[in-house]
Batch of 3 targets.
Target 1
Amino acid sequence: MAVKVRAASLLDVGPVEQLHREAEARVIQLPAPVRLWTLVSQTLTALFPLGQESLILVAEDAGRVVGFIQASDRSGSGSLSVASKIHTLQVLNLCIAPGRQDEEGVAAALIDMLAGQAGERGVQRLVVRVPLDEPLLPTFRMRGFRQFATETVLLAEHVEAQGNGRPVGGR
């Protein structure tokens, strides 16, 4: 059956949250740096924002949500109306239902629709932050994404209290 991609609605909150929870469950088993990136980029607080500066699309197969993608203007500089001044959107979430044989196809359909929707709104660039071993990296690259930066992400797994816990000069 063909996957259909459409704009998310409030009726999709439940299925999208379920996909997100399933993705988080898989992330717990990943090494710390990958886990950190995923948790930062896939926070539920970023889902279904009240503002218009976010695009959320869902993929459905036989009436069931099987994936979603979310991109947002992280600068807070405007809204995604047709006359938008936003030039760059960051992909914050891309989740595909576990066990899908066509994971790359679903992801590709979501990315393509996101690019089309963003372009219609005057957006010129999409940015996505992914680990170097992300399985969907080739899917992004085949859609024109290229690596332009490498970053180091630091994580303290266990933080111990030291001193009185107040910074020098704190009140």
Note: Residues 103-120 form the longest helix (18 residues).
Target 2
Amino acid sequence: MVTTHLNRSTDASAAAATATPDDVVLEVRGLTKRFGATVAVDHLDMTIRRGQVLGFLGPNGSGKSTTVSMVLGLVTPTEGTIHIMGQSLAEDPSLVSRHVGAIIENPAFYPYLSGRDNLRAQATMVGGVPESRIDELLKLVNMEDRAGGKYKTFSLGMKQRIGIASTLLTN
């Protein structure tokens, strides 16, 4: 699951054309991934500005997860470049942990920890996230009253809300 919000614009390319260098948070140029003879992603170009959220829609096997995995540094591109906050991901893989929050497929957390403690664990891994940010995010995803419950007892929707909160820790 990858979700986005494009500030009411349906054309990311048009929005990117007006971006200043300081507005660009993700820039992908010529991104390609081949698995043997199979081309999973073919010369993808995109620019995402601050405040935009991008969603990929498409049939199985169309390259959605592969693209996100490359942006997260989990899969090495065959060709192309990825820049996060103006810096090359190839040169500094730590950019992902400092600037990107993402969930691919289903959120995975420690089942015996509370929702709040799972967010605290994520915040510790990211570093520099105050407890007040966790409180703010639990309120944002409407989980402040249930955050003390064990993650394993949460419904799928509640797990997804904790997952969304975790992606916003570094925002």
Note: Residues 115-126 form the longest helix (12 residues).
Target 3
Amino acid sequence: MKKIIFCFLMSSLFFTFNMRAQATNIKQQLSKNNLPVHITANQLKAFYKKGLYEFIGSVKAVRGDTTLTSERMNIQKDLNTGEIDTITCINNVVITQKDKKATADKAIYENTKYGKITLIGHAVVLSGKNIIKSDRIVYYIDKDYAISQSDNKRRVNVIIYPTKKKGEKNE
């Protein structure tokens, strides 16, 4: 369970523009299984027979330098395998790590063949000064790519700053 929550927290922060290098970083982080996940909330409802765990009210999950906050977090486990199927965070979702930040109305981690994280509703990802804004951002963890979509009224909005090479001076 800790590995999946950590995957959710870490992967959500990596919807940035240098995906290949960051995907390697995610995989390196996942191999460091010794960091605990600390979850606090106003309330926990555990439905063991259903494999459902609901964290309600001012939810905060921390692992290492990564923090996730939301109003609600639901964790659904597969009753046969004990593996986590989905993690759904609802209302005021904020994920931070160093200079990276992702926000949305809702975030869903799905433990599919490729691992998928979806940010829904006012999705924004910041990495340094780079920004992606759209209605929905879907990141496929193992395939190392993301898709941003917006409805017909709005468009995907991206701001990318060039990467400075070593030795380059600010002008």
Note: The two ends are 48 Å apart (CA to CA).
